[in-house]
Design brief:
Elements lengths: L3 E8 L5 H14 L6 E6 L4 E8 L2 H9 L6 H9 L5 E6 L11
Antiparallel strand pairs: 1-3, 1-4, 2-3
Protein name: ABM domain-containing protein
Length: 102
């Protein structure tokens, strides 16, 4: 089983970015055991992106089956801040921690 990465991005109004940072920090401190790792990024033009590494696509699907409308934390957070989230789901093929190289 390969790890899966979700990237949820949205452009927000400048005054809403701090709200997202605060809510993200609160959620991480409360614990997110179904995720292997999650990070919040901020880019130009108030682009906010939440990148999450899941142990497998099955773990992601299991999580989504338990949340409201299958939209998940990142989508709900960015929608709640007035954004229109774009979601990408990618299979992790290789990274710098890969124990072997082809």
């Amino acid at each position: 089983m390969s790890e899966v990465v979700t990237m949820v991005s949205a452009h927000l109004a400048p005054e809403r970015v701090a709200e997202v940072i605060e809510a993200f920090g609160h959620a991480v401190r409360a614990g997110m055991p179904e995720r292997r790792h999650t990070s919040l990024f901020r880019g130009e033009d108030n682009l906010v992106r939440i990148v999450t590494v899941w142990r497998s696509r099955e773990d992601l699907e299991r999580y989504l089956s338990c949340v409201d409308r299958r939209r998940g934390f990142a989508v709900a957070l960015l929608e709640g801040a007035g954004g229109t989230p774009v979601v990408d789901v990618l299979e992790l093929v290789m990274d710098s921690n890969t124990p072997w190289w082809p």
